[in-house]
């Protein structure tokens, strides 16, 4: 699959690159994508939720009314979950939501996500660039030139470029990452992928291992 290479001004450079078939041309494995995204979201959960159960409620332990003769159900403790202020039945407890996922599955998920975006024509390749200084306006101008200002974009760079990262961090619906840090969630969460030529080579090297 051949795609045109654009510069940061949205102009056709006259160059073309071939997206490797072993990454962008496969049939996307949707289940692998699901598992990797599920693991990513699970790892974001702190798991610090906690509700008090009846043994943890600080109330009197006296019997609140006599056992018989009231015409109502018997009640032995104000801590009972049936009373306001009582303990919670089966309430949440602190737990770890993370789970293991094999490296090969994670790699397949990233390849599948890239393939899905490429097959939907949502991948643009950019000539390697940088900004002279951090300016949000420069990043917005680049997105406008690429007709991606109103879309959720993910810019993938070969390495961290401080000026580009700082320029894009305040732009709504825009994210900047690197080839080594990009996740399946990032790929699927974006409407348009913007990949620099050097980042494309890095991705190919990483995912073909």
TrEMBL record:
<keyword id="KW-0689">Ribosomal protein</keyword>
<dbReference type="InterPro" id="IPR002136">
    <property type="entry name" value="Ribosomal_uL4"/>
</dbReference>
<comment type="similarity">
    <text>Belongs to the universal ribosomal protein uL4 family.</text>
</comment>
<keyword id="KW-0694">RNA-binding</keyword>
<comment type="function">
    <text>Forms part of the polypeptide exit tunnel.</text>
</comment>
<feature type="region of interest" description="Disordered">
    <location>
        <begin position="48"/>
        <end position="75"/>
    </location>
</feature>
<dbReference type="Pfam" id="PF00573">
    <property type="entry name" value="Ribosomal_L4"/>
</dbReference>
<dbReference type="InterPro" id="IPR023574">
    <property type="entry name" value="Ribosomal_uL4_dom_sf"/>
</dbReference>
<keyword id="KW-0687">Ribonucleoprotein</keyword>
<protein>
    <recommendedName>
        <fullName>Large ribosomal subunit protein uL4</fullName>
    </recommendedName>
</protein>
<comment type="subunit">
    <text>Part of the 50S ribosomal subunit.</text>
</comment>
<keyword id="KW-0699">rRNA-binding</keyword>
<dbReference type="GO" id="GO:0005840">
    <property type="term" value="C:ribosome"/>
</dbReference>
<dbReference type="InterPro" id="IPR013005">
    <property type="entry name" value="Ribosomal_uL4-like"/>
</dbReference>
<comment type="function">
    <text>One of the primary rRNA binding proteins, this protein initially binds near the 5'-end of the 23S rRNA. It is important during the early stages of 50S assembly. It makes multiple contacts with different domains of the 23S rRNA in the assembled 50S subunit and ribosome.</text>
</comment>
């Amino acid at each position: 699959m051949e795609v045109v290479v654009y510069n940061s001004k949205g102009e056709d450079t006259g160059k073309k690159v071939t997206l490797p078939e072993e990454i962008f041309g496969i049939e996307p494995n949707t289940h692998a994508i699901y598992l990797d995204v599920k693991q990513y979201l699970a790892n974001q959960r702190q798991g610090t939720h906690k509700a008090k159960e009846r043994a943890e409620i600080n109330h009197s332990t006296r019997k609140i009314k006599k056992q018989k003769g009231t015409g109502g159900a018997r009640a032995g403790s104000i801590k009972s979950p049936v009373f306001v202020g009582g303990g919670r039945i089966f309430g949440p407890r602190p737990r770890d939501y993370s789970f293991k996922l094999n490296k090969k599955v994670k790699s397949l998920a990233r390849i599948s996500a890239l393939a899905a975006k490429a097959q939907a024509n949502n991948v643009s390749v950019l000539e390697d660039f940088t900004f002279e200084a951090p300016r949000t306006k420069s990043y917005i101008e680049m997105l406008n030139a690429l007709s991606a200002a109103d879309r959720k974009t993910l810019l993938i760079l070969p390495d961290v470029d401080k000026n580009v990262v700082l320029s894009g961090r305040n732009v709504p619906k825009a994210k900047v990452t690197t080839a080594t840090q990009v996740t399946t969630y990032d790929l699927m969460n974006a409407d348009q992928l913007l990949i620099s030529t050097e980042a494309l080579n890095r991705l190919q090297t990483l995912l073909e291992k």
